[in-house]
Every structure is written in structure tokens, then in C-alpha cells.
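Course exercise 7: structure representation. Students receive a sequence record and must write out the corresponding structure in C-alpha cell form. The form below is the worked example handed out in class, using C2H2-type domain-containing protein (140 residues). Read each field label carefully; the graders check that inputs and outputs are placed in the correct fields and that the protein name is recorded exactly as given.

STUDENT ID: A-19
EXERCISE PROTEIN: C2H2-type domain-containing protein
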Amino acid sequence: MGRQRRSRVHKAQRDVHRAARTRVRTRDLDLIQHKDLQPEERAKLENQPIDEEKPGLGQHYCVECAKYYETDLALNTHRKSKVHRRRLKELKSPAYTIEESERAVGLGRDNGKDRINAEINAQVSNQAGESSDAKMATDA
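STUDENT ANSWER:
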């Protein structure tokens, strides 16, 4: 009798992929645009105090990509890379606001349009009512 085939090691591969996806997640574009790119906040992020928990002691930080780097050379190389340039291009377009997302769903302000539409509908129904009254008067 020969040796039986061993079972596969990564049965729950989906969980491994899920963990990897959340590990490399960075800040969203709207948070970077509305908060991090403001001049005073940007200055704070670029001149952070030394922190042993962060890569490169927290001294080499790319604000646009929201990532820490080990050395200044790695940060400068990153700034020349296609990934960084693509991120800069994405940041040029304005981020969605809460009001804009609510308008897309139909929850935005009506700016008086609903009131005007209601008045027009009332006028149309009054005219329709008057014409039906006139028909009833001619029939009688």
C-alpha cells in the first residue's frame, strides 16, 4: 500500500484573500481631499514626531497616498512612480459630498420645485374639473 495523498493546506483560501485586502487598505480619497491636503494638516503629517511603531519612525510620509516609507530615498522613488502619479490624478477630481450623494438617491432639497409642481397639478386638476362640470351642464 502506498501513501495516501495529503489534503490541501489552504482550504479556506477566501479568508486569506480577505485578510490581505484589508491589510493594504489606505485612506479614502475624500478624507485625503477634505482633511489631509489642508495646509496646516499637511504640515503636521509631514513633520510628525518620532514614533517607533511606524515604518521609518514616522518621518517619511506621503500625504497624497497616506503611506509611510522606511527611508527618504524610498519616498522620493515613490513620488516618481506611476502609482503616485495616478493617485495625484485621482485627487484632482473633486470628491463626492454628502449632499451630492443624497441628491443622487433623491433625498436632496427641492428648492421649491415640489411646491411649484403641486400648484401646477392643482391648476390642471381644477381645469379638468371645470371641463367635466361644463360637460355635465351641456348633457343636462
